[in-house]
Amino acid sequence: MSVTAKELASALGLSEAAVSLALNNKPGVSTATRKKVLEAARAHGYDLGRKAAALSAKKGTVCFAIYKKSGAVVDDTPFFSTLSDGVGLGCKKAGYDLVIRYLYEDDDMEEQMYVLQSAEFSGIILLGTELDEASLGRFSRLKTPMVVLDTYFETAEHDYILINNIQGAYLATSYLIRKRKSQPGYLRSAYAISNFDQRADGFYKAIRAWGMATSKSLVHRLTPSQEGAYSDMKALLESGEEPADCYFADNDHIAIGAMRALTEAGYRIPEDVAVVGFDDLPLCDYVTPPLTTIRVPTHFMGQTAAKRLAQIIEEKDALPVKIEISTSLRKRKSV
User: Fold this and answer.
1) For residues 256 and 283, what is the distance between their CA atoms, to the nearest angstrom?
2) Domains of the chain (ranges plus CATH)?
3) From the CB of residue 334, how many other CB atoms can be counted at a distance below 10 Å?
4) Contact at 8 Å (CB) between 65 and 101?
5) Biggest alpha carbon distance in the chain?
6) Are strands 328-330 and 293-295 parallel, antiparallel or unpaired?
7) For the chain, does the N or the C end have fewer beta carbons within 10 angstroms?
């Protein structure tokens, strides 16, 4: 008979809470402790899939695997909490229970992948916002049906559900050009992820469509967080950098941080500098001035991922698809 989590905790001299965190691959314990617990669990015959099996009283259990590489983009923000809520509702409608697991690139990925595979989930929804193509290869080796959420790679054959990033950036940039009659600048993320690369494509596509030279757009590389973008933009302005007449930002955090730095430097928004963000976070209504941005239907995107996963679990011959969720422009006072 295999041991219980409580017996493992006693044998290892750890708290039951620490053992539970390690077994479920949640934050709160060190890499060394997690490895120690998992090695002991295997040695004593602990069934790493028992929790998922016990939870499932329906068709099965789906794992929402949240991958974090830097943590600079994927964080506990309204964007990702709403996305998670959508995944949960979609799984419920499809008749599956949901387990959420966090995967950390700076921890032992081999152990984390072992736990993911051992649990024998019916399917996996992988949040790939911070994922690169090389890291995706680890997940491609899993035998479990999988949908990749919030990213896309041309050379890796999977089911993908993502935002239409090119469309959103194109809408935002075109709106700036129509309103300001000038060449937009670009507040670009200093962290390279697939979504931001696609937004860059949309930005430059709009610049070309309006007959402008892409080389003439002023580009600032900023940390994709409010404080990081504020500090980076403040340093640029203090160095004597003259801002563009208007900017498209890769996300709302960058836009809001840059607006704060511009305001402190004496620039009025939108009279002197106009800014458009991306994501439509709740905070956009409360900053001064309220931020014009691109709305992303994150809850619907999460539901769509769960619906598609249920389909490929139940239809074994389903062919991979890429589903892009359309965006829309939310006009406020920053332009």
Assistant:
1) 9
2) 1-46 (1.10.260.40), 50-163+300-325 (3.40.50.2300), 165-295 (3.40.50.2300)
3) 24
4) yes
5) 74
6) antiparallel
7) N
Q: What confidence tier does 250 reach under pLDDT thresholds 50, 70, 90?
A: very high
Q: Which residue has the tokens 């030279």?
A: 213
Structure tokens at 287: 């900053």
Question: What is the DSSP-derived secondary structure letter of residue 25?
Answer: T
pLDDT of 214 strictly over 90: yes
Q: Which helix (H) or strand (E) segment is 246 a member of?
A: strand 246-249
Instruction: Lowest mean pLDDT of 144-158, 201-215, 226-240, 320-334, name the range.
Output: 144-158
Helix 5-12, helix 16-23: angle, nearest 10 = 120
Express each pLDDT in 66-113 by its tens digit: 888 765 565 656 778 889 999 999 999 999 999 988 888 766 777 888
